[in-house]
Fold this protein.
Amino acid sequence: MKKIIISNIIIATMLSSFLLQAKESDTGVRFSGLVSLEGRYNRGFDEVNTSDIAVDELGFAFEAKVNKWATGLISFLYEEGATDFEVDEAKITLGNTELSPLYLSLGQMYLPFGNYESHMVSDPLTLEIGEAREQAVLLGAEMGGVYATVYGFNGSTQDSAAEDLIDKYGFNVGFAQETDQYNFDVGVGFINDISDSDGLTDALGATSLLAYEEVNGLAAYLLLKVGPVSFIGEYITALDQFKSSH
């Protein structure tokens, strides 16, 4: 079947972000959401044509600011054919980078391995390979445009109950700057087992990946915007071949 996607339109900020209870320094709750619609037209080799309108993506999030040192985030996501409606992120962050460079996050989050900003209709291959959502603990710092994070988690590819440990880890360092003329963000990340990424786990299965040794992963990215022109460069790789652990 030959498939032609006519359009993918984010109806965009279904409900635009807003903060309740006024001042930035006060406690409050922020709610945001989006709806992405997709128009499809399919022409088959048998000359049978079909068309449809689909809700391709639906998401919304609540961010609660308990005080100037603690915030909580919970978000929900639905993606047609890929993700049932579910909790996407649920985490607590302790810290305030406007007052101190250090912060600590705990909960379900997307690991800072790679930067998958995109203007394409479909997800880039780098995201499909490298993106990882885990229940993790993350320590980060930001100062003068320089940022760094280190994190640990209990991955999906554990060999047995005896080895069911928080033994997966990674880090990310980068530098970002924004001016009236240009914006840029450049960084590099490392993860000690790239097979724990969502794409590889879904494609091969966590049980199948148990037969392989851990494989380190490397990510690098450059995002540059000058006026109306944007450039996005991403690189994801495994640092070794997948080898049998037996």
Notes: The chain has two domains: 1-90, 97-246. The chain has a mean pLDDT of 82. The chain has three helices and 13 strands. The first helix runs from residue 125 to 130.
